[in-house]
Amino acid sequence: RCVLKELESLGKALYGAKLIAQRFEVQNCSHHKDPVSGSACLFSMIEEGNPHHFFIATQDQDLANKVKKKAGVPLLFIIQNTMVLDKPSPKSLAFVQKLQTNQLVPEHHKQSIVQLKEKEGLAKQEGEKRRKRKRARGPNPLSCLKKKKKKTLEGQEPSAEKKKRRKRKRNR
């Protein structure tokens, strides 16, 4: 709502931007009675850890720099009629790395798991790891020639086995 109010106050110069902004769903903000600037409103909506998972689309460099300092907020901007999603900020990458390390099993749990496996006899022994030997195989049957049939009576076939050949008729 604050962005729409700011666009209305700027007049006819940004009428096209106002029409585009009106097409999108309007999110309620905490300062609907006394509107603030658009960038301040957008930043206040993502301040508590971005619970609604908003993307921020802006050309304002000050707002973009503030957003990059927040973890987990994607940033969009426009370059020559193309919307571009900015790469994750170092703050976001560090936040994700921290989440991943917290989700892994703690070290003392790993040690107790190994001890329990050894106790039950489930631990892998080093002697068990053997590679399968590759067996020698014959040639590829598709690359080999077919065996020739043996001819009877010294190269002559019996007359009963002779094949009849048909003459093709020409269509004119």
From TrEMBL:
Keywords: Nucleus, Ribosome biogenesis, rRNA processing. Residues 117-172 are annotated as: Disordered. SUPFAM superfamilies: PIN domain-like (SSF88723). Signal peptide: none annotated. The keyword Cell division does not apply. One of its GO terms (biological process) is rRNA processing. Its main location: nucleus. Residues 117-129 have a biased composition (Basic and acidic residues). InterPro entries: Fcf1/UTP23 (IPR006984), PIN-like_dom_sf (IPR029060), UTP23_sensor (IPR057776). Transmembrane segments: none annotated. Residues 162-172 have a biased composition (Basic residues). Residues 130-149 form the UTP23 sensor motif region domain. Pfam families: Fcf1, UTP23_sensor. The keyword rRNA processing applies. It is found in: Nucleus, Nucleolus. GO terms for cellular component: small-subunit processome. Belongs to the UTP23/FCF1 family. UTP23 subfamily. Involved in rRNA-processing and ribosome biogenesis. This is UTP23 protein. The gene is Utp23.
